[in-house]
Specification:
mainly beta, Immunoglobulin-like, 5-stranded mixed β-sheet, 3-stranded antiparallel β-sheet
């Protein structure tokens, strides 16, 4: 099984998205977490209508692996969705 990885240049803005058509969450947020489990950034998601949500996350300039974590509260249930984000840096010749 291959997990999808969002690859970005470190220090840029990453548009994280969540699609949940059919039911609207009471609260929904997105976080960027580093390899030590520290939350680097956390934002409340913005609704773009019909169950589509986004958050404009700033990816750290440091190269490495991060996790984008969505947490949505729907009724009495909490849903968590995670994806890998890999930040690259380097010199351009």
């Amino acid at each position: 099984m291959r997990l999808p990885v969002q690859e970005v240049i470190g220090g840029t803005t990453f548009k994280a998205t969540w699609v949940n058509s059919g039911v609207l969450p009471g609260a929904i947020s997105s976080s960027i977490i580093d390899r030590t489990g520290t939350v680097v950034q956390s934002l409340t998601a913005v609704s773009s209508g019909n169950g589509f949500y986004y958050a404009l996350m700033h990816v750290p300039a440091s190269p490495g692996w991060y996790v984008n974590e969505w947490v949505a509260q729907i009724s009495v249930n909490t849903y968590v969705n995670r994806q890998f984000v890999r930040a690259y840096t380097g010199d351009v010749d």
